[in-house]
């Protein structure tokens, strides 16, 4: 991603440059366009109120900051909406859809990877997207979510277990999907 | 499965999402005004209109909003007297600590991460400017409370 150099402290420029990526991440967690867009707009509203303090930070830091807020807003929305959406816990299991195994056979590894993450409960999905896709550290996710780094580490470990077979498949088959 | 596997997993996940056949909407309109309105709503929700902190914010902003020649920030006593004049009652603002508590709440709303600034005593000038800049209170708010106070005095 490139950032404008003309006026790096302009919040509306920061918004224009980063909103699509923030929205994309929020949508991958939300699986719903409207929820994701609402969370994204709310996240930038928080940024507006904190811009006087954050404008001197790097664009990368601010991008990650607003992404974390947006993902949090998505998780909060699911919590409030009680959409029969299971949240993460120690004995959390992926939501398996009808015909899951059959569908897997028909999908490429890439689709399977996305499906594995998409089928996670919302908190696990958020952690997975932030950690594996956005490259957040345990501590960054923990700070964003208001939980301990060890909790995040445990959640990531569960996700590793679900992604590992796919990584192995790629390695063993020398597959370049 | 350890952190050593993460590079391969991250690489796979990134390539998986890069290859999305149905990427997230590309037609997202950058509705900046919506963001600004939400930001203002969030600030106002933190300091409900007509509440104690809102009136203290109005008193802090009044010298700037009214275009006073010397926009000196009001003292605790002046804040208390302005609130009394506007609404006839000033909660517990006669106590300096109550004024300080209200200012702390306002500072948290408009300077959420400025712990260092919040800890300083002479924050009022900066706070007044920030209150006006973010539209926490407006000239219309000041006119409305002045008008209501005048009507109340007449009756």
Summarize the structure.
The complex is a heterodimer of chains A (177) and B (155). With 177 residues, chain A is mainly alpha-helical. Chain A has eight helices and no strands.
How are the SSEs ordered, and which strands pair?
The complex is a heterodimer of chains A (177) and B (155).
Chain A: H1 11-30, H2 33-54, H3 59-81, H4 100-106, H5 109-118, H6 122-133, H7 138-145, H8 149-173
Chain B: H1 6-18, H2 32-46, H3 52-65, H4 76-87, H5 96-110, H6 115-119, H7 124-133, H8 139-154
Helix pairs in contact in B: 3-4, 3-5, 3-7, 5-7
Unreliably modeled segments of chain B: none
Provide the gyration radius of chain B in Å: 23 Å
Helix content of chain B: 55-70%
Note the beta-strand portion of chain B: under 5%
| Biggest beta-sheet profile of chain B | none
How would you characterize this protein structure?
The complex is a heterodimer of chains A (177) and B (155). Chain A is mostly helical and 177 residues long. Chain A contains 8 helices and no strands. In chain A, helix 2 crosses helix 3, helix 5 runs antiparallel to helix 8 and helix 6 (122-133) crosses helix 8 (149-173). Chain B has 155 residues and is mainly alpha-helical. Chain B has helices at 6-18, 32-46, 52-65, 76-87, 96-110, 115-119, 124-133, 139-154. The longest helix of chain B has 16 residues, at 139-154. The interface between A and B is large, with 43 and 39 residues.
């Amino acid at each position: 991603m490139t950032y404008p150099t003309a006026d790096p402290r302009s919040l509306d420029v920061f918004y224009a440059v980063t909103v699509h990526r923030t929205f994309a991440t929020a949508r991958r967690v939300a699986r719903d366009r409207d929820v994701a867009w609402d969370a994204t707009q709310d996240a930038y509203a928080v940024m507006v109120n904190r811009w006087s303090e954050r404008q001197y930070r790097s664009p990368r830091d601010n991008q990650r900051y607003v992404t974390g807020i947006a993902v949090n807003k998505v998780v909060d929305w699911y919590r409030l909406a009680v959409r029969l959406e299971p949240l993460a816990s120690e004995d959390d299991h992926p939501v398996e859809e009808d015909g899951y195994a059959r569908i897997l056979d028909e999908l490429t590894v890439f689709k399977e990877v996305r499906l594995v993450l998409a089928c996670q409960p919302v908190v696990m999905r958020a952690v997975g997207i932030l950690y594996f896709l956005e490259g957040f550290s345990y501590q960054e996710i923990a700070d964003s979510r208001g939980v301990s780094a060890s909790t995040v580490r445990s959640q990531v470990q569960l996700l590793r277990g679900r992604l590992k077979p796919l990584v192995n498949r790629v390695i063993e088959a020398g597959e370049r999907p | 499965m350890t952190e050593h596997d993460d590079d391969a997993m991250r690489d796979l996940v990134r390539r998986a999402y890069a290859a999305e056949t149905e990427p997230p909407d590309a037609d997202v309109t950058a509705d900046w005004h919506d963001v600004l309105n939400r930001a203002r709503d969030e600030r106002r929700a933190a300091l409900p209109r007509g509440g104690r902190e809102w009136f203290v914010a109005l008193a802090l902003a009044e010298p700037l909003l009214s275009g006073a020649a010397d926009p000196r920030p009001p003292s605790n006593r002046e804040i208390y007297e302005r609130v009394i004049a506007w609404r006839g009652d000033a909660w517990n603002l006669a106590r300096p600590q109550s004024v300080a508590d209200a200012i702390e709440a306002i500072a948290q709303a408009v300077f959420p991460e400025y712990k260092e600034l919040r800890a300083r005593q002479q924050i009022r000038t900066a706070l007044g400017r920030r209150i006006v800049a973010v539209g926490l209170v407006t000239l219309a708010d000041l006119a409305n409370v002045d008008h209501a106070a005048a009507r109340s005095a007449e009756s």
